[in-house]
Fold this sequence. Notes:
Elements: H1 2-21, E1 29-33, E2 47-51, E3 56-63, H2 76-93, E4 101-108, H3 111-114, H4 118-127, E5 133-138, E6 148-155
Parallel strand pairs: 4-5
Antiparallel strand pairs: 1-2, 3-6, 4-6
Amino acid sequence: MKRIATLFSFLIIGTVPAWAQQKHFNKMEKRIINPWEWQNQRSYVQAVEVKNVESTLYVSGQAAITAEGISSTGDMESQLKLAIQNLEQVIGKAGYECKGIVRLNIYTTSTADLWPHFGILQDWITKNGIKQSLTLLEVKSLFETLTVELEATVVK
């Protein structure tokens, strides 16, 4: 009996520290909070609660800048498309997915010029299954010739 107790003690002492060091990840949970329905037509939600996150990525504002670092002089539509592509590239390179975006900030030098092309952004949000809180700000200027910038928080 004493031999069994000793063996049991060695097993406990040997396995508990290893077990305690293992990562125990629960599946990430996202809860959408929408007290109203009107925001659904605008492709965003009022709030997103996220639990059991493995990691969080804070993405700097992505704009219409080429891989060579040249700012676009194109119109709002072309700049929005390139900003979305750049955002996707950063998110993918970091090992995340666009569907993990929980916060999106849009900065533009002209909401009047952005509105006719807002469907591009809405289609991209729908295509990727994104449910994000959103803030849209019209600003006096952006870097050089840029007219729109997208900043995101992404979780997995």
